[in-house]
Amino acid sequence: MKNDNKIKHHLSEDLLMRYTNGTLCEAFSLAVATHISMCDDCRAALESYEAVGGALLDVSDPEEMGDDSFESVMALIKNQPTQTTQISERVASDVPSALSDYIGGSLQDIKWRPIGLGVKQSLLKTSGNSTARLLYIPAGTAVPHHSHNGNELTLVLKGAFEDEVARFGPGDVELADEDLDHQPIAVEGEDCICLAVTDAPLKFQTFIHKLVQPFLKI
Amino acid sequence: MLKLFDDIENPYSQSGMSSVSVHEYAAGMGPRILEENKSHDWEELLLMISEAEDRVAFRHLFNHFAPRIKSFLMKAGADSTMAEECSQEAMATVWKKAKLFDPTRASASTWIFTIARNKRIDALRKIRRPEPDELTWPNEIEPAQEEALELKQQSEVLADAIQNLPEKQRQLVEKAFFKELSHSEIALETGLPLGTIKSRIRLALERLRHAMG
């Protein structure tokens, strides 16, 4: 699954760096891994961040190890078999394996729940306080107007949406923080499926949505 | 520790590696000499582990990287005992996965960094880390040696460039990398405005990229 010729909206340096150093939560890591699988630019950026990590490790000040630590490592090695291959069979899917592991297959296998106006969602199980969900937005339909308490990352998997900022197609990432108050609309012609990750609940503008928000877990 | 080498005849006699010989160990000069010796070819050592389960090669890698992985984990918030344990486990993983190391894809220090990073996620955060799909490489092309050499040179240039960064930029890059802090959290910790942090990190990364040509 590659769309790198068309991808215009990429991951931020902060996200790439936190994914590289292992401090990003699972939900955002899922979005980052999925985007990188689709985007050669961000894969290259990730690899240079990892190279920076390696170089920093290489030149950092050492911390003294215990007296018998080398012997302990040799004992660890002796007690565990050598690992030669890591290849596991994957189910063919129309999404990167990072995501298909969570869906349990392809886009058609997603178990959707309607959340109104034709929009559907499917929550993905991730640890921590951030939430990852898939959104299904029928062509020409708007996701209710909302702002955010924290950060929201939306990655387009299929179709496209437009909001006050730009048009986002397959592989594109929109990063929104609490200052952005937007209304994404799926463009005509094709239904849009996105992976949306938030680190705080979305704030919907209308009374009705505020009322149902706790039940939708949005 | 010297007894480990009893069963090994000079492993470097055919490898052409000359930076440190086993005789220097025997002469009691010990690993401290190695510590300061920057001329090690870490990639070569990893291949020796992968191809021949070479323990001397592993000892050299261990002397350099284990104390630095420990330091990385302590900067990430582990106490000394836990960092020691995780560093040992990470080094055991280096041995066990040595066959998966591909010098055309990453330098040794980058590869070992990703192992230490994953250990940090397992041990300190206990979360799952979704990984990007592996790229599939065309089989017929084989410029492996040149690529590996280029990558190795680039990573040496990068390490030099990091050591030559202005102190403030280097500190910020280290904070951003090793601590569990986002740019805005670094702003809180250092008292610097977020804009300054971002531009210093960007500047540092640009210098590093520039250094890599």
Keywords summarizing the entry:
heterodimer, A: 218 residues, alpha+beta, Jelly Rolls, 6-stranded antiparallel sheet, 3-stranded antiparallel sheet, 6 helices, 11 strands, 32% helix, B: 213 residues, mainly alpha, Rna Polymerase Sigma Factor, Chain: A, Arc Repressor Mutant, subunit A, 10 helices, globular, disordered N terminus
Question: What's the helix and strand layout?
Answer:
The complex is a heterodimer of chains A (218) and B (213).
Chain A: H1 13-21, H2 26-38, H3 40-59, H4 69-79, H5 97-103, E1 113-116, E2 119-124, E3 131-137, E4 146-148, E5 152-158, E6 161-162, E7 167-168, E8 173-176, E9 185-186, E10 192-198, E11 202-204, H6 207-216
Antiparallel strand pairs in A: 1-2, 2-3, 3-10, 4-11, 5-8, 5-10, 6-7, 6-9
Helix pairs in contact in A: 1-3, 2-3
Chain B: H1 22-26, H2 30-36, H3 42-52, H4 55-75, H5 80-97, H6 108-125, H7 144-163, H8 167-178, H9 183-190, H10 194-211
Helix pairs in contact in B: 3-4, 4-5, 4-6, 5-6, 7-10, 8-10
